[in-house]
Amino acid sequence: MLHEIYEYTKDLTFADTRSPEYRLQGVILDISTFRLFQAVRSDKSEKKTNRPFIKNIIHHSGEWDIIVHDEFLISTVELPQGRYSTKKKAKTDIQKIITDIVDAREYQKPVGQDGMGEEITGSKLKLFDVMNALNYFKHKDTVRMVLKENGIKEEALFNRILMSFRHYIRNNIRGLPPDLHVLLSDLTIHQKGSVDGLVPYFLNHALEIFPHLEFMDDLKNTSDLSKPANWYMAARELNRKIIFHAGPTNSGKTYHALQRFKEAERALYCGPLRMLAQEVYKRTNEEGIECDLLTGEERLFVDPDENPANHLSCTVETASVYAHYDVAVIDEIQMIRDSQRGSAWTRVLLGLCANEIHVCGEASAIPIVRNITETTGDEFEIKEYGRLTKLEMSEKPVESFTNIQPGDCIVTFSKKDIYAVCQELEKIGKDAAVIYGGLPPATKRAQAEIFNDPDHSCKILVATDAIGMGLNLNIKRIVFYSVKKIDIAHQEDGSCLRRMANISTSQALQIAGRAGRFGTEYEDGEYTTFHADDYHKLKEILSKQVEPLLLAGLKPSADQVETFSYFMGNSSMKQVLEVFYNITTVDDTNYFLCEMSNFKALSSVIEDVEMTLRMKYFFCSAPVSIKDGAFISSIFLMYSRRCSKGIPTTFDFVCQRTGHPYKYPESLDEQMVLEQTYDALDLYLWLSYRFVDMFPDRLEVKLLRDELEPVILHGIRNLTKLFTSTDKTDKTDKKKSRK
Ligand SMILES: Nc1ncnc2c1ncn2[C@@H]1O[C@H](COP(=O)(O)OP(=O)(O)OP(=O)(O)O)[C@@H](O)[C@H]1O
Ligand SMILES: [Mg+2]
């Protein structure tokens, strides 16, 4: 297997982030540890360096992650799904896994027995002899046999318990319980009895320090995720019909599903993004059909008394699996394979109580949806669509910003590139609208409207792949500024996982498909690359077939984690999840376990906050990403601390902590903080629906958020100025530090 990984990793290219002008070529020197790489600089100096790149290689859900030292970026290798599953090993070794992960509890010595044993027997124990007896105990076959029968099978586990047992006896030689004192004095002073008599004491000690040993079967049963279809009994009682609307981008999949949504008496739309849920909400109401909106942060009712309308547009995560609908739409179903959010699509696919479920997405997701419907017994039908408008690759790459034309959307995969592109465009007097993931939905919408407005002078869009799903924009041509995507994830151990990989065929198709949308100004779309050397790479990426999706994401529910944690004794959320993930049983012909890396990172932030595990689970499910910055992490911690102590977080407190009144940003850093402030206000709203008393000022905070949106938009419209002022400050700082 090592050789296979070697084959996939040997040609990776790395970038030294401290000096990005250099490219480094990595060569694995020692494939048994993967720790040593040789890097050759491909700049003019051609110097060699032997700095080790790799901290660790871990694998999960059938893929390998290569964790590098912080200063490097690295490509991720996508090995074929499911080939390197760890599950088999985990299943056979539950006890070892738990014991490796869980810390032993401190043994609580029974009180008030000091000296009683000596009084009864009239003799003092000699430490040396007692330790010898324990050595004999350690090596005696019958002892080991009885312990195995009692569940202590693992050598490592036995040794850890023995170490603690010895430690306890050594430190309490004068104060052991009388019966144990009698037994040890018989063994060591009177040379009678057998060390086998120590077994019950040893077992008691084991259960004290590893309480989970008593519940091995329960742990195994509660971590069993092998039949997720059975979690949703209400849905199983219905005769559901699943209609899969399959086709390329811009083929009218969502349009047709929404036709049924609108016709139905009671209907639900589940979208992948807040923006899309809002768009459906808006359009449905505009057509005279009353429709409510539900997202994690927002609940809008058409009825002023908040009686629910018959139509609801929501984000996938917020959809109810209890309410009954005639028709439900699940959009962008290919997201079911997403390593972080996939489980949300699996949940609605398995659990929605609707007679007719319209599933829209790439044809590549047909196999997994079909397979899942076989396990649920639902009826399954496919409707296929062709693209409504023409979409072609341009004959050549763009190469120069002067060749950028009205209707172009330049797609980058990093904010850094967004700034760089905007600056270049400004130099030649071209105004651009900007959209990236971290922006508030309203800001994204405002930017999209500016770009879509035929009367506005801004005719160019610079965006990250945040525009990749479902949006209808007036794009004539998509220009890929790069075909590699950098992804930075923070691991629970605090290390940084940096990945740089070619975008997948599916991603490239989704993005390219934004050009030439039906019903927009430019019906015939084009796509190309900016850089000449990416042109053929993109061609190659798009020439590949999208691999069929065979696995759907799965995640344990709060109930499952809570029950599981009960059997784990006083373990931390991190340990509970780690053990759960290692011993869980999943039907790996249809499912994989989602990563929950953000969840775990959030749980590390609030590890020391005292709250019930269920509360922690809820907090950690919050849609905030702490990789976005320290400010949002500290707010997250502050909200959770106050909530755990029962202190309400008020509007005034939020104003004070978020620096209200908000000022227009003067640098990129200030812009970033404003974006994180927006996330902090969003988080407040999200929490306010669950902990009403602890976050009581929802309406006021919502107004605060509305106030912040134009401030962020102002920053975005002046991005180049911010970039220039940040650049100047950096240079002045550098000059000062040189002096
Ligand atoms: N039959 C139709 N009549 C009128 N408008 C249509 C029709 N089909 C699609 N459209 C419009 O064309 C645009 C693209 O359709 P839609 O969003 O449904 O495509 P899609 O296949 O879901 O694309 P994506 O994969 O990007 O989500 C939308 O603005 C939609 O309203
Ligand atoms: Mg769609």
From TrEMBL:
Keywords assigned: ATP-binding, Helicase, Hydrolase, Mitochondrion, Nucleotide-binding, Transit peptide
One GO term describing the cellular component: mitochondrial degradosome
GO BP, one annotated term: mitochondrial RNA 3'-end processing
Domain spans labelled Helicase C-terminal: 396-562
Enzyme class, UniProt record, top EC level: hydrolase
GO molecular function ontology, one term from the record: hydrolase activity
Protein name: RNA helicase
Organism: Pinctada imbricata
Signal peptide residue numbers: none
